Amino acid sequence: MSSLFDFEQREERYAVMGNPVSHSKSPFIHAAFARQCGHTISYDAIQVDTGGLAQALGNFQAAGGKGVNITVPFKQEAFALCNETSLRAQQARAVNTITFRADGTRYGDNTDGVGLVRDILHNHGGVIARRRVLLLGAGGAARGVAGPLLAEMPAQLAITNRTPDKALELAAEFSDMGTVTGCGFPALAGKSFDLIINATAASLHQELPPLPEDVVAPGGWCYDMMYSAQPTIFMRWASEHGADKALDGLGMLVEQAAEAFYLWRGVRPQTAPVIAALRKNN
User: Fold this and answer.
1) Of 12, 207, 212, 237, whose CB has the highest number of CB atoms within 10 Å?
2) List of residues 6+ apart from 10 with CB closer than 8 A
3) Gyration radius of the chain's alpha carbons
4) Given the DSSP bridges, would you call strands 97-100 and 106-109 parallel, antiparallel or unpaired?
């Protein structure tokens, strides 16, 4: 016979949903956070077929799930499936963290941008304020980080994309937050930046964005939102073109997960040991 005590001790369920999702490091990360904080949770990776997100969310919620992370390609669809969303989710028009509330409603947030900013500032000791920042790409990944980057008050945020119109459109959407411009890659000729962030998936395909040779300012940093066991092709390019630091997105992954854990559990876990463990196991 179950008792109230049994119910209170039952582990609470969370998951990440995406396609593909079997490679996700989120189960490892959240299990590490839970151990660190003394919490009892389960966290699974759930592959969702195209068109199946609404049903998957409904099933998980009905089974008592407390929250889910959303990864590609469902972040924009998840935004539409929430009853309420945070300002940063509204800016991104995408959700990567959903909390299932006791009244049955869903609260959506986007922790990608804060994850990027925390990794740069706190894990690497970088600076965004008053720096010239170049954001490569104008898709969902770029949209998700533009607002938090601008909140740090850079001197300028330039958004560049192979299709210039998309960069211009994204820049216009965020123009009320600071000095934001949009352009195609050829328009970067003769310009240099203190921080260049690759928000494209080019590194996954061993491709490089068509950047000018001198686009990295003296002392500049480059950050690839992708990550792998070895330096990405963009990181290698950055090192060859004078960047003081060439960073990957593993820290961002852990930091955005820590923000999600905080939203769900009310405790902010330490990220450094989890990042170190992932580096060791990569």
Assistant:
1) 237
2) 40
3) 19
4) antiparallel
Type of residue found at 118 = R
Residue 75 bears catalytic tag:
yes
Let me know: does 109 contact 85? Beta carbons within 8 Å: yes
CA distance 125 to 38: 29
Task: Give me the helices (H) in 10-158, please.
Answer: 26-37, 53-62, 75-80, 87-92, 112-118, 140-151
Average pLDDT over residues 232-251: 97
Distance separating alpha carbons of residues 73 and 89, to the nearest angstrom? 16
| Interstrand relation of 12-18 and 132-136 (parallel, antiparallel or unpaired) | unpaired
Domains of the chain: 4-110 (3.40.50.10860), 113-251 (3.40.50.720)
Tell me: the pLDDT tens digits for 28-50? 999 999 999 999 999 999 999 99
Decide if pLDDT at 134 tops 50.
yes
pTM: 0.94
Task: For 194-234, give the DSSP string.
Answer: EEEEE-SSGGGGT------TT-EEEEEEEEES---SS--HH
Which pLDDT band holds residue 9 (cuts at 50, 70, 90)?
low
| Angle (nearest 5°) at CA 68 between 62 and 74 | 105
Pairing state between β 67-70 and 97-100: antiparallel
Q: Which of 75, 166, 245, 280 is catalytic?
A: 75
Stretch 228-255: mean pLDDT: 97
Q: How far apart are CA 85 and CA 95, in angstroms?
A: 8
Q: How confident is the model at residue 281 (pLDDT cuts 50, 70, 90)?
A: confident
Task: Answer whether residue 154 shows pLDDT above 50.
Answer: yes
